[in-house]
Amino acid sequence: MTKTIFKGSAMLNPVPVVLITSKNKEGKINVFTVGWIGMACTKPPMITVAIRPERLSYEYIKESGDFVVNLPNSKLVREVDYCGVRSGKQIDKIKEMNFTVESSKDVTAPIISECPVALECKVISITPLGTHDLFLAEIVNTHVNNNLIDDAGKIHFEKADLITYSHGEYFSVNSSALGKFGYSVQKKNNKLKSKNKKKT
Asked: Which CATH superfamily is domain 15-199 in?
């Protein structure tokens, strides 16, 4: 298909949309919305977050050295948008959005109870890039709502009703899987063997 070429721009879509909480040394808590975030390493588990230096959370995170990534569901989309367009320098967004916060296990920043998943993160490094600085952080603990975990211990993120951000709009994550990791190279005879075993 014919394509239109655009000058290099931030066009990676969709991206996860999260609420990041932080706390300064005075005990003040802030929350803001982030779309530029992603996994960077498995062992140890590392995450990257791009933050503008003028953000209040930038100041808090740089001071404390930690933050929490809260994964919101579709019921919180209004709160997600509000926390992305309003500044914590003028208002208390935690209070305005009626968020319930609880203490983390190993970081100073709190967890938003209304979010089904939360990741405690400790900053490893900060790299200036331009409009944003890149924070590399280690995930030290992950909190997952019990109703997302089955009896076998599997986490069903598809039941969390998480949301994404794509070119200025919010979307729900479809709960129906398109495939499973490795299915494209799975040998057909393995499928047949498993079916035969069930028959016998």
From this structure: Electron Transport, Fmn-binding Protein; Chain A (2.30.110.10)
Q: Which of 121, 128, 153, 113 is nearest to 50 (CA)?
A: 128
Segment 98-156, tens digit of pLDDT: 999 999 999 999 999 999 999 999 999 999 999 999 999 999 999 999 999 999 999 99
Return all residues near 63 (Cβ < 8 A) that are at least 6 apart. Answer: 24, 25
HSE (CB half, 13 Å, CA atoms) of 177? 8
pTM of structure: 0.90
Q: Where are the domains of the chain?
A: 15-199
CA distances from 22 to 5, 33, 46, 84 (A): 39, 12, 18, 15
Nearest CA to 57 out of 81, 38, 34, 75 is that of 34
